[in-house]
Amino acid sequence: MSATTCRYPEQMREEATAVEVRTHIRLLHGMRRPANWLQLVRFGLVGGVGFAVNLAVYSLFVHPVGVDYRVASVAAWLVAVINNFVLNRHWTFDARAGRARFQALRFLVVSLVAEGCSLLLLTLFVESVGIAKIPAQALAVAASMPLNFLGNKLWSFRA
User: Which of 10, 114, 116, 131 is placed for a possible disulfide with 148 were both Cys, Cβ 3.0 to 4.6 Å?
Assistant: First the structure.
């Protein structure tokens, strides 16, 4: 085995530390840019609208219609995700120059992952903790917001 293909633990540790430092520096530089904070505020506003849409649709499906709360969560997510994609694409990330289908597919993947986490939390809150269905949905959706923001900023709508 040649010296170039063999990695010693010290080399691996130095490389990992270098990556961590670069990531940390990128994060600090990103936090210094006011445009990133504005994006976060816009994302939060769009998320607030999507949150309201989600809870309204969820409440309608759970109580008057009588659908299972997990099915209602998926239906509410579907309505909210369409609303949020349009608003985030055009207003939060100003990504109109990108290809809409490509962005929509990525947005959908990120949103599906976030909905999966939200659905797991919802089930946990209702079944194990005993929280009422509508507050449990509100908590679960709010808890998945950071994952959603990071996925969309860093992948779906990246410049």
Answer: 114
